[in-house]
Amino acid sequence: MNLLDGLQISRISLKVADLDQMTNFYHKVIGLNILEKTNNISLLGVENRVIIELVEVKNSSWGHQYNGLYHIAILLPSEVDLANMLLHLAQYNIRLGASDHGFSHALYLNDPEGNGIEIYADQPKVIWPYLNNSLDIVTKRLDLRKLASLATTNNLQSLPPQTVIGHIHLQMKDLNGFRQFYLEKLQMDLQIETPNALFASVDGYHHHIAANNWNSPIGPLPDKYLGLNYFAIKAKNFNTLKDILKNEPTFIESQNTFIVTCPNGIKIVFEQ
User: Fold this and answer.
1) Three-point CA angle 193, 196, 199, nearest 5°
2) Confidence of residue 255 (pLDDT cuts 50, 70, 90)
3) Among candidate residues 67, 13, 16, the one with its CA nearest the CA of residue 226
4) Beta-ladder partners of 97
5) 13, 37, 103, 260: which could join 53 in a potential S-S bond, CB 3.0 to 4.6 Å?
């Protein structure tokens, strides 16, 4: 049994400067439903399930040089859904990256405040690339013409009901802190390791949580800086996790949740 069996990245919260602009982007461009909006918070998701929270922070500064988000990764149910998303995004003249990673096909873009977004579809596990009996990550050019030919609509209204946060990719100064917390304490499996990045998962997935120091982040994100606020995860062994993490100096318990801050200053909300 793994501590994080059944792991799901359930929600990602971002601190933003312009709530209206960011809400409009995640609704119209990304295709999330606006589930709730107040003067300073927007909740967006699929059907009635929140997956993105936007929190407006006044008098804030950009935080891209600090530990935090590298990209959000939205997992679509199929390659056809990814093709539909490609045609949808093309209508907005957004600068896109596109990669074939072997285990997934992915589109990359930034939101208006520079937060990275990956929208992807997994490939059949039988064709995932392996090197020396370990999962390998490749980055090849994705054939966008071929992908577009699979589309069934260019009028995407909302994301498919099965859409989830497939993984979160973090940037952090101290990758040893990632090893200590995610691999050793939370007992995640290291799937892929490169000189400056680690990809961890449970249940044999290619990665649920990854981290890199490619942009040389300088340390934890200060309160008044924009970027990742927290990410939330669900796992089957909630009570066992709570028992293991309750002695962490940053442990905070609330109703049906608890919060822990990892060694790189990134806040994680554990949900039942």
Assistant:
1) 35
2) confident
3) 16
4) 108
5) 13
The count of C-alpha atoms lying within 13 angstroms of the C-alpha of 39, restricted to the half-sphere facing its C-beta, is: 1
Decide: helix, strand or coil at residue 83: helix
Position 39 pLDDT exceeds 70: yes
Task: Name which of 178, 201, 199, 197 is nearest 189 in CA terms.
Answer: 201
Distance CA 125, CA 63 (A): 36
Grouping H, G, I as helix, E, B as strand and the rest as coil, residue 125 is helix
Residue in the block written with tokens 């407006």: 56
108-141: b (≥16 Cβ within 10 Å) or e? bbebebebbbbbbbbbeeeebeeeeeebebeeee
CB 38: neighbour CB atoms within 10 A?
A: 9
Question: Domain locations in the chain?
Answer: 8-271
Question: Which CATH number is 8-271's, of 3.10.180.10, 3.90.660.10, 1.10.10.10, 3.30.930.10?
Answer: 3.10.180.10
User: pLDDT tens digit string along 162-183?
Assistant: 999 999 999 999 999 999 999 9
* Residue 132: C-alpha distances to residues 64, 125, 192 (Å): 36, 17, 12
Alpha helices, DSSP H only, in the chain?
19-24, 79-90, 144-148, 175-178, 238-245
Asked if residue 225 lies in contact with residue 66, where contact means CB atoms within 8 angstroms, the answer is yes
Calpha distance 170→68 (Å, rounded): 6
